[in-house]
Amino acid sequence: xxxxxxxxxxxxxxxxxxxxxxxxxxxxxxxxxxxxxxxxxxxxxxxxxxxxxxxxxxxxxxxxxxxxxxxxxxxxxxxxxxxxxxxxxxxxxxxxxxxxxxxxxxxxxxxxxxxxxxxxxxx
Length: 123
What we know:
By secondary structure, the chain is mostly helical. Helices cover 50% and strands 3% of the residues. It has 6 helices and 2 strands. The protein has helices spanning 10-16, 33-41, 59-71, 80-93, 96-104, 106-115; strands at residues 21-22, 45-46. Strands 1-2 form a two-stranded parallel ribbon. Helix 2 links the parallel strand 1 (21-22) and strand 2 (45-46). Helix 3 (59-71) crosses helix 4 (80-93). It is globular and about 45 Å long. It starts with 9 loop residues before the first helix and ends in an 8-residue tail after the last helix.
């Protein structure tokens, strides 16, 4: 499997402009030495994010959807190439309505998060 070159993101970062702010969830892979070095060298601002903060990011629900779709394939993938093929196929097959619902749920996610003082929500 091909590794990801973080510098391949540089054109995207430049297209966004000098006010790029990265929001991550403090997961260990996002805070590795390699990632931190890249963030500093690319001069990307990182949003301050508290530990154990609620996960409001709708992409987590997309990952769940993708996982469920791939798990419906039987038998399981024979190799990484087949897994990648299925992931791409299923990602492209997620109905637009699911994506729109996740995007439109953001307001309610924030409202519930505030109502629960940052604690557990139904999301």
